[in-house]
User: What shape does this take?
Amino acid sequence: MTTTRSRLGRLLGSVEVARAFTLTVLTAIFGSFAIERATSMTTLATIIAVLCVLGAAVLFVRREELSLLRIAPSSLLAFMAWALTSIFWTTDHSDTLFGWMALFGYAFLAITIGHIRDTLQTVRAIGDSLRALLGISLGLEIMSGIILDLPFTFLGIQGQLAMGGPVQGIFGTRNMLGFVAVIALITFVIEWRTQSVSAPISVPSIALAGMLALLSASPTVLVLAFAVGIATGALMIVRHTSADRRNLVQWTLGALVTLSLAVAFAFRHQIIALLDAGSDFSVRATLWNTILDFTAINPVQGWGWFGPWARGEYPFTYINFRLDDRHQSALNAYFDTLLQLGAAGLVLFLLLGGVALIRSWLVASVRRSVVYAWTPLVLVTLAVESMFESFTLAGAGWFMLVLCALRAGQSRSWRESIDAANTGVIPTLRPQL
Assistant: This one.
């Protein structure tokens, strides 16, 4: 019995299991829509639960490598605690509990991967997973739109590839495909720059992600691409600035970002017209104004956590009734958080993402390897996408937010100082030479 336990422990603690577990988790999470449609929500929930149990076993075997203080960011724990506390004032206790369990499950998987794989290994695993899923998406779109000329309704594929799109792939909507394609582009470029993947693989991968991003015809893709491009340029400037001038450049860039946001808000109508997204934004604006009416009733605590809008639950059903629509979210992660968790929850959500972005940006500014740029660029993508969709509050989007927050906290955190005091090792960041 002891020998069997020892062998099982060595197996669970092995590098091979860590890599296989990471790839399985990423494939299940990014392919969750296809899994649910091909089977059922119960099957998807069972897969996530089994992966959580396996992840707990892996962490237990590796417990000597872990620090309890650094197991998860405090901002994440605070947000999760507030979401769970909302069970006391929610309109449906069971739906809130199930919604919170889904939130916890994806967060736990992200925490597990964050502790058993380093940044480069994580990037490589995400790259391998998205290469396969985007390839499957393109293959199914070709089958549906060109070879068979028949929509695959059970996957939401409309078969419009021959007409230039929009296409959805196995991700359910064109906006979700566009979002995943942008994350894939960031990941594939980082793989290429770090030479962790050969050019014959990385170049076609970048082309595949770019093509699907364009074919998705998602109006948010252009905004995401512009935001990520600006962030990449700014990060390159900071990384190539001498250490004694870096703080001045950081503050200057911060002021420019603030000014740009103010200008964008002032000229928002012209920008919307330029993007030809007027009708789409009009729907969102009407929805957000209605949400604000309901938020005013419970401004601090909100209506209780649900995640994706539950059918038959107040106030979601009444909001859709007033708008004569069938929205499944607020089409904005910030408004969704405000509606469900109130102003307190929104502050905690902004704290979670904001602290992670600042930490990861500072790390990427001074670390030599370009792989550290992956975390802040993905966080910029999540922050911008959150203005148009609620992806960051559930599924793959929430998983990526937690993973990036954990990754950022591992490099710059008050916990580091405590660990250093206990171990006598002072963690340092080498400035770029």
Notes: The longest helix spans residues 333-366. The mean pLDDT is 85. The chain has three domains: 7-66, 72-116+219-413, 119-217.
